[in-house]
């Protein structure tokens, strides 16, 4: 067990106090000031097997300039060790608490204590656990515990590598193999005795052949700016066939839809060439990019073909992307990379993916879509807030009515934490509720009384997008928890009586100078909330 505490010390470093006047650098200590206390401080024990009790202690850590090692046996003076060096000490039999104090360049200190067992008996009751790492392909972790033991060596049995990996007893020794397969792993457990205790096991090392994490989440985009072929973020073209089988099935290639804890993705196995038959022809001529996320356990390359309806092989065009194995590879391909080759993109009906080497690598695909940068929203883009005046927040049986409630001048003062909230409409189509550290909370949000308080999820400023229809006079805000005016009012009713919606549509009227926005929403049947917002 390790116990860690941080000690903030003070030191005057003369060298760093000298001002710098080298070209372009004048007293710039920002990097120095950003340095923290040492981290990941540990110590490795190596005990000799000669009944002498001689233990070599090698400390490790990050952002460390020196270590002080307290042996824990009553020796008052610590050994001072610089990184990369060790200290040795002869112990009598017993269990000790070794203390390591690591010091940074700023004099900040991190203290760690570790248990050390010194015994002249051979280790007994050995328990070994060998496992494949869940995240790193072909990596094996070995953990060993035993009575009277100090450390252990692991010989992982890969041909050409006879160097053991060592760890403290109770710790973990890890190794990444070049190839998967079956190996004989030998563990040698050591105390201070001449005799050691050994264990061997034939172990199957496996390669991770599928992703263990989801592809990066796509950003919020307006629906008009996306044509999605596959993925869960946007609405996909209906009726697409993700394995039309143009003959590749007979070559050993196949496909499935892989489910990673509810996140589905396309899986093309032993990729020779695979394809997608899009449910209906699409016109991507107004789009700017093709996005695709690809994962593979192999370092392969993939040719990506968008195919016009009825295209002949001689007129197909592609872009090649080389993958880095065991991670998601995200590509945003300019559509000019295709059109500059003479490919028309106004009537696309299929996709084709060709692997190299042929029919050897397996790939996973997610988030396949075309997109374009959102156009600025005329007259709306900018930062807004509720007008800090009586009547700016009200509700009644008709649009603009305050018959049931209309905020007073005193309530504006009492709810200052609400009237400083801002609503940010970006020119790229994103929307943000910027609430600061406090906003106005009501009982339905889980507080005892209506009062200022920390924002409560999902109404806490999560990412969102918007579409402003200037002709219809509406704003549609998409993103669970995003809102104008009050978080409880939405098109279905008022929270908590209805579910939190994924989108809300408001009726809006802008003043002639575009600096005042009057917003109305019918929250259910015959309940009209009205807000007055001003540009800031």
UniProtKB/TrEMBL annotation:
It comes from the Bacteria. InterPro entries: Galactose-bd-like_sf. Keywords: Signal. Residues 1-24 form the signal peptide. This is PKD domain-containing protein.
């Amino acid at each position: 067990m390790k116990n860690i505490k941080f000690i903030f010390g003070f030191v005057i470093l003369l060298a760093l106090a000298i001002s710098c006047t080298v070209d372009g650098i004048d007293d710039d200590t920002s990097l120095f000031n950003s340095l923290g206390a040492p981290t990941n401080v540990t110590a490795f024990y190596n005990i000799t097997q000669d009944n002498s009790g001689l233990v070599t202690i090698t400390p490790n850590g990050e952002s460390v300039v020196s270590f002080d090692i307290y042996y824990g046996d009553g020796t008052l003076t610590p050994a001072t060790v610089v990184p990369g060096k060790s200290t040795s000490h002869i112990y009598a039999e017993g269990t000790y608490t070794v203390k390591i104090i690591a010091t940074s360049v700023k004099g900040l200190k991190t203290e760690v204590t570790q248990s050390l067992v010194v015994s002249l008996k051979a280790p007994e009751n050995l328990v070994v656990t060998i496992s494949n790492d869940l995240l790193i392909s072909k990596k094996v972790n070995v953990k060993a515990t035993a009575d009277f033991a100090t450390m252990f060596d692991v010989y992982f049995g890969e041909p050409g590598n006879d160097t053991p990996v060592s760890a403290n007893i109770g710790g973990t020794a890890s190794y990444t193999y070049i190839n998967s397969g079956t190996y004989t792993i030998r563990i040698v457990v050591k105390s201070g005795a001449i005799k050691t205790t050994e264990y061997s096991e034939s172990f199957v090392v496996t390669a991770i052949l599928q992703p263990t994490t989801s592809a990066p989440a796509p950003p919020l985009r307006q629906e008009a700016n996306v044509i999605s072929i596959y993925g869960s973020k946007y609405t996909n073209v209906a009726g697409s066939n993700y394995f039309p089988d143009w003959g590749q099935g007979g070559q050993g290639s196949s496909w499935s839809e892989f489910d990673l804890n509810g996140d589905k993705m396309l899986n093309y196995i032993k990729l020779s060439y695979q394809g997608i038959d899009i449910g209906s022809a699409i016109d991507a001529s107004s789009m700017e990019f093709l996005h695709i996320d690809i994962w593979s356990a192999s370092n392969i390359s993939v040719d990506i073909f968008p195919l016009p309806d009825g295209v002949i092989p001689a007129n197909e065009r592609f872009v090649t992307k080389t993958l880095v194995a065991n991670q998601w590879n995200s590509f945003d391909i300019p559509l000019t990379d295709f059109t500059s080759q003479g490919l028309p993109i106004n009537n696309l009906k299929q996709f084709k993916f060709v692997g190299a080497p042929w029919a050897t690598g397996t790939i996973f695909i997610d988030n396949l879509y075309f997109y374009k940068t959102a156009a600025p929203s005329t007259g709306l883009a900018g930062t807004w807030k509720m007008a800090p005046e009586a009547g700016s927040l009200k509700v009644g049986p008709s649009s603009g009515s305050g018959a049931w409630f209309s905020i007073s001048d005193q309530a504006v003062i009492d709810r200052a934490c609400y009237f400083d909230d801002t609503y940010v409409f970006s020119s790229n189509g994103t929307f943000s509720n910027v609430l600061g550290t406090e906003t106005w909370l009501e009982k339905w949000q889980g507080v005892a009384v209506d009062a200022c308080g920390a924002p409560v999820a999902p109404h806490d400023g999560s990412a969102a997008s918007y579409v402003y229809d200037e002709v219809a006079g509406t704003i549609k805000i998409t993103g669970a928890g995003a809102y104008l005016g009050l978080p409880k009012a939405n098109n279905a009713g008022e929270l908590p009586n209805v579910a939190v919606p994924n989108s809300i549509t408001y009726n809006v009227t802008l003043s002639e100078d575009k600096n005042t926005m009057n917003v109305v929403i019918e929250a259910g049947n015959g309940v009209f909330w009205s807000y007055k917002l001003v540009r800031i």
